Amino acid sequence: MDVQVAALLPEIIFHILLLLPVDSLFRSKSVCRDWNDVLNTCCVNDLLLVNPMSKTSIHYPLIVDDFARLVGSANDLLCIVQREGISIYNPTTRICNRVYGGFVAPVRHYQGAYGFGYVSYTDDYKVVAVCKSNNKVKVYSLKTGIWKKVSDFPDANLLQDGLFLNGCIHWLDYLPNNLPKIVSFDLLKEIYSQITHPRYDECEKRLDLGVLGDRLCVLSSYVEKALTDIWVMDGDDSWTN
Asked: Signal peptide span per the entry (predicted)?
């Protein structure tokens, strides 16, 4: 039995349209009023995650100021902090979800540390904002559109924004001549934990946190030796140089 397109539920039409290349998807809004309504009223999360089947140049729709910085990415979505707020942006579809609140203004550029990641269990994206002057933390859920306060961040000196890996945001806590730490925040449980550091050489060094494949890594750069060690984390908090 043939099924008329008009008889299909809007949700079914929407998921069929999502199979189209990006350019065709947005052109399909002109086919009829029903399709236009479906695409205009669908969930922002779904449109943000349109499968990029055609190549599109990256175009950021906001004017970039001296405050702007990329603080994280997950599943091809970018999280960008600017003076007027936070943007979660899909460079393929050019759809931007603007988020207000958290610690953006009046907190100065160097007073905030951020993280962005994906929670597969709840199919949600979260922004974590840490105010370094008082260790207060807020978490934003893209699914609910709400900021909420969580327990304070452990005393730390955060020099960089956090890195997302395996459901957690990881920050490097380090001051020269102090024992370094890696602090992790579980995006699902919203609790903190600490990862044991590698055993570095005692001489002066610079530490940078990174991701190598699907594992956490630390770059240890020694000024006197003109040498950089790469430590890659194995299971059970062990590290390989």
From this structure: 1-24
